[in-house]
Amino acid sequence: PPTKRSRTDYGDEYKQGPPGYSKWQEPAICAKQSMLYSLRAQLSILTSDGNPMQKFNRVCNIVKCVWRVHLTGTMCTLMVDDVVVVTQLYWADELQAKMDACSTAADILSREVLEVRRIGGGYELYTARGPNQLLESPQVWRLMSLSKALLRLKDHFLHHCSSKWRDEPLRSMHAACKQYKLCYREHRVKDVGMAERWIATISDVFIHEVKMRIGRNRHEDVNTSNRLCTKSIECLMQMPRQNPLIEHKNGELRIRYE
User: Fold this and answer.
1) For residues 238 and 210, what is the distance between their CA atoms, to the nearest angstrom?
2) What is the pLDDT along the chain (258 residues), one digit of tens a residue?
3) Is 200 in contact with 209 (CB distance < 8 Å)?
C-alpha cells in the first residue's frame, strides 16, 4: 500500500457532496463518501492486467487515499483510510487474502449506493445495488464467506465414509476444519444447579449443545466431547445450502437445520 499522504482538498465534487448527500451529514462522512465514489469512478475506467491488489493500489494512489488489510485469526478486514469496506473469511496465505480482499472491495465499490456510517468509534461502508434496496454492512461478506466455508465442511463429511469420522470424531473434525481455515471449539458454561452446558462452535458459529451434570470423571468427559462432536457433524450435514446461517440481534450466529 502507498505511504500516508496529506489530503488538503478533495476538489469541487467533494464540496458538492456525493449522491444522496444530506446537509445534516457531518462533513467528515461527506468527505469519506466522496472519496469512495471517486475510487469507484477510477476503478470503472482503469484497465489493468495486474492482480486485484495492484489495481486497487493504483486507484488509491490516484485518489490519494490509503488502503490496508488487517488479518485476525481467519478473518480479513480491508479499510480505505479509516473506513471498513469489507470483512471476510480467508483460506489461503496472507498475500492471497489481500488480493481476495481487494477483489471483493472493488465489487463492493461498484454498487450504486455507497453510504458511510459512524459505528462506535469508527466508520463502516454500507452499500446497495439500487436506491430502493436494503443497505448491507461490511459484515455481510463475513457471513457469506463463513457460509461458504461451512458448506464446504458439510460436503467434506458427506463425501467421507461415516464410519471413519464416527470412530474418531474429534480428530476428523479438527483435521477438516484446518483444511478449510475454520476452528472447532467446545465451551463449558455453568447451568442451573449441578449441571453445565457443553457448546460446540465452529469459528464462533453455534452448532450444537448438550447438558451434563457437574462432577463427572475424565472418561465421562471424553465420551461427552466425542458425542458432542459427532452430533455437531450430523448437524452440519443437515444444514441447508440456501441461507445456512441465522444471525440473532445480539450478534450470535447459528446454523439452520433442514
Assistant:
1) 18
2) 444 443 333 333 333 444 444 444 678 888 999 999 999 999 988 776 678 999 999 999 999 999 999 998 778 899 999 999 999 887 668 888 899 899 999 999 999 999 999 888 889 999 998 888 888 888 888 888 889 889 999 999 999 888 889 999 999 999 999 888 888 999 988 877 767 889 999 988 999 998 877 766 666 677 889 999 999 999 999 999 988 988 776 768 899 887
3) yes
Whole-model pTM over 0.90: no
Give the chain's radius of gyration (CA, Å): 22
Bridge-based pairing of strands 67-72 and 245-247 is: unpaired
**C-alpha torsion 164→234→251→119, nearest 10:** 50
CB 227 within 8 A of CB 247: no
